[in-house]
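Incident log, structure service

09:12 report received: a user says their structure output differs between two submissions of the same chain.
09:20 pulled the input from the user's history:
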Amino acid sequence: MSSYSEEVVRRAADIREWLTKQVADKQEEIERLRTMLFLVDMLLKRGSFKTAASLESVTSSSTIKPSDESSTIAGYQQTREAVGNDNEDINAIRRAVVPTAEQQDNTSTSFTEVRQLRRIKDNLLLATATLSPTRLEITPVDEINLNVNTQPFKSFFLNRILEGMKARDVEKVNRGEIQESESLNYQIEEKDGTLIKKIMISNYREKERLNEIFNTSTWVLTRMMEKDGGK
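09:34 re-ran on a clean worker, output below:
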């Protein structure tokens, strides 16, 4: 029976975590597509699609008989009215797919999703993550006490991952690509002096960044727990 080094096992665990996130992301995308399909079906049931199809079959003829002219005009007008009446439905579909800036502002501080961060080898719950369009909060479970000075929390997660994201945002601000208020920021809330109570990250902005934060934080919390005496 062959054995693998700790580095190989760690990389395999990282890959598994990445694959798990990819599956979750694809499932979320499928659910959104299903919602879009449902809304489009509801729109088509209003009859505008059928009217437009009928109009197309009439106008495709090279010659329109005088007796059919009035019905063709009526069908055209009916189609325009149907489309006009369904503008609200079309806008509803657009809002469901891409929220407006006003909607994003209204939901920026309200958490819309809760995720669990679990250790790979035994599915042990490490922390819960509450997520909004602009803010992420990671809270370790009460049963796990993690010291902020335990590595690789500061050396890797803070100084390399989060500070790296901040530095890239500073460059984007200097180039005028984003506003300073849109750049990533974070804060660590402590309890009893040195224990992590909550990790608060604002303006992550990109889905790729969010996945990277989830992946690295899960690995870092696992390593910290092992170093602090956890099994």
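09:41 both user submissions now match this output. Likely a transient worker issue. Closing.
09:42 reviewer note: Helices lie at 6-44, 48-59, 66-85, 87-97, 101-107, 153-174, 207-227. Residues 103 and 228 are 43 Å apart (CA to CA).
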